[in-house]
């Protein structure tokens, strides 16, 4: 079973590649690992009281709903759709994470500026591009900033 | 019982119970432990008695006797008992044995020394080994000082408890009055607020629980004020909307009746009157539906096929706006059949109203209509690239008869969205709108599975 990594900035736009993943792996269920990287706090107080569940409380409910929506849309193509916070964006850390999960492919949006969703968010796009795992860029037309679920609707063609 | 009195009584009872427990402990420990020195005095007398009675030297006996007479105060009801241990059986029926108790003699025999008391009668005994044999030397006396002391202590403690009760009740009353005065102020101010003075608000001093209560009241008053304002606006908007076609009908009829006219002119007037009457009918029907949709009794629950609902809504939209371009997006629609529980007609009314709005305000630009599902809800997404809604007006978009400022040139009554909202809420669903002026609008309707 294929394991695929998809970085996300907790926006619905960043979930768009799930459509492409499910179409590309048609007939073979895959595990999709969604990740969002955070900076490890440096203060002693912050480290002592670091809680794994704390950033999960900050995940927007629309994002969680969208994951549920995608699971319902592709029940045959998606064996497991998981979401993790990673506490570093370094290449070594990401490499260890991907090795532990046997990640074979990385999907990400091309020409999209991944946003800093949380104050402690850190971009992992650069580090992921430098790994030795194949990165598949996904093109899409961005329908504008007023919609939420509309950004998740799949468009067959690639528009200029 | 009033809360003020409850607080006072509770405070008084709590403090008084502590004082009573403390007083009881003081009296108890004073009674038990405060007279250890008296036992020592009795023991000294017992030892001297043993010297006087059993010392081998007569001269020493006399010295001890003199010492006792000159330096030892005679204690109240002081008595000495010298008992041979092997004659103890004869003493068992004596008053001494009965008052001191068998345990005293047992301890004396076992430990060589014993003390006991009965109320204020104190007993101390020692065992003396004399050449003639073993003797119990027991000295007993009444501790009159202890008697007086404990009696005074008892009186003082009881008086203190009674006075404390009175003082604590008074303090408690003042304290509870002070604590509850902000609540009384809130209640006083709230009685002044009525339907005609909803603009008034409570003052919020400090940052405690009462200020949170006052803040909550103020929020409630704001919502009430908004509701009253909305109701007033609704009445004035409804009146205006109903009045406009009526004015047109009356005006047209008046004009037609002013003088003789040709049949064609009468025909034209009648057509205008007919059009306006139909508008009036449409408005009143919409108002009736709005009123009925707000009524939550006897809701119909039947199985509604989502695909059929979508196609019916599309058909309604195409009938009203045949030129509109509606793209049915199934990219998020699950593969299996989706059903809802509710009234198919009402759901169709709600969704078609939103779809009609999208078609109306997007001109010839395509409208996207998509369905999706989560574990809990079926989601309908209707988005367009039309005129959008100004940011400051989005919060009013569900007010009956409200028209956005950029929508005034387009025909409409402002009833469709409030109607859709009422229907969706009836079935525990939700509607969310996001929009940007001149870019587009997205409406998401969620209905529970």
Ordered list of secondary-structure elements with their pairings:
The complex is a heterodimer of chains A (about 160) and B (about 450).
Chain A: E1 2-7, H1 17-24, E2 30-37, H2 44-48, H3 61-73, E3 78-86, H4 91-101, E4 105-109, H5 125-129, E5 134-138
Parallel strand pairs in A: 1-2, 1-4, 2-3, 4-5
Chain B: H1 3-33, H2 36-54, H3 58-71, E1 79-84, H4 88-91, H5 95-100, H6 102-111, E2 113-118, E3 121-130, E4 133-142, H7 144-192, H8 209-257, H9 263-293, E5 302-305, H10 306-320, E6 326-329, E7 339-342, H11 344-361, E8 367-373, E9 377-384, H12 416-426, E10 430-436, E11 440-448
List keywords for this structure.
heterodimer, A: 160 residues, alpha/beta, Rossmann fold, 5-stranded parallel beta sheet, 26% helix, 21% strand, globular, B: 449 residues, alpha+beta, Beta-Lactamase, Helix Hairpins, Heat Shock Protein 90, 3 domains, 5-stranded mixed beta sheet, 12 helices
What would you say this structure looks like, in words?
The complex is a heterodimer of chains A (160) and B (449). With 160 residues, chain A is α/β, with parallel strands linked by helices. Chain A has a single domain, classed as HUPs (Rossmann fold, 3-Layer(aba) Sandwich). Chain A is 26% helix and 21% strand. Chain A is built from five helices and five strands; from the N terminus they run βαβααβαβαβ. A five-stranded parallel β-sheet of chain A has the order 3-2-1-4-5, sandwiched between helices. The longest helix of chain A is centred in the middle third of the chain and has 13 residues. Chain A is globular, with a radius of gyration of 16 Å. The model of chain A has no long low-confidence stretch (mean pLDDT 86). Chain B is an alpha+beta fold and 449 residues long. Chain B has three domains: 107 residues, Beta-Lactamase, CATH 3.30.450; 85 residues, Helix Hairpins; 147 residues, Heat Shock Protein 90 (2-Layer Sandwich). In chain B, the strands form three sheets. Chain B has a five-stranded mixed β-sheet, covered by helices on one side. In chain B, helix 2 packs antiparallel against helix 3. Chain B starts with a helix and ends with a strand. The relative contact order of chain B is 0.07. The mean pLDDT of chain B is 85. The interface between A and B is medium-sized, with 21 and 26 residues.
